[in-house]
Specification:
The structure is a single chain. By secondary structure, this protein is mainly alpha-helical. Helix content is 65%, strand content 0%. Helix 3 packs across helix 5. It is found in: Nucleus. One of its GO terms (cellular component) is nucleus.
Length: 150
């Protein structure tokens, strides 16, 4: 039984030559480091192939979890960006609608009859909402609606 303060020793996953040289081992049999040094016959592992496979799978699982977390983070950032673009698009179209409405009101004031101009100016001076004033222009039919894409 291990004392409470001492962790259970971890099995060595690297081959003996890589462990002794303190270099990275890819844990293949023989590993690339041993093949590169010309000693593939010395590439031996202290643990069984099954244990090495389990360790390798654990590493793959950890890598996949990290990749999954990065993808979730990227997805959240993309969703936030998409919502920001939708908000900007709504603001843009709202602004274009306001521009078209103001253009329509200007045309009515410039080209409308004296009676229409006096009514519109009076309503504007009273502080009435421009949308309501523009509705009267539309119902009067005195002015054609300007095209938005000019």
């Amino acid at each position: 039984m291990n004392p409470i303060n001492k962790p259970k020793p971890r099995p060595a996953a690297s081959c003996a030559p890589c462990r002794n040289r303190k270099v990275k081992c890819d844990r293949l049999s023989p590993c690339e480091a041993c093949v590169a040094r010309g000693i593939p016959h010395e590439c031996k592992y202290a643990i069984t192939d099954e244990d090495r496979e389990a360790i390798a799978q654990a590493e793959v699982i950890a890598q996949l979890r990290g990749k999954s977390q990065r993808l979730r983070s990227d997805l959240a950032a993309a969703e936030a960006e998409r919502q920001e673009l939708r908000r900007r698009d709504r603001d843009y179209h709202h602004s274009r609608s306001e521009d078209a409405a103001m253009e329509m009101l200007y045309s009515a004031l410039r080209l409308g009859s004296q009676d229409l101009v006096e009514r519109l100016v009076g309503r504007i001076r009273e502080g009435e909402a421009l949308a309501d004033v523009i509705r009267e222009v539309q119902t009067e039919g005195m002015v054609h609606r300007p095209k938005v894409g000019r």
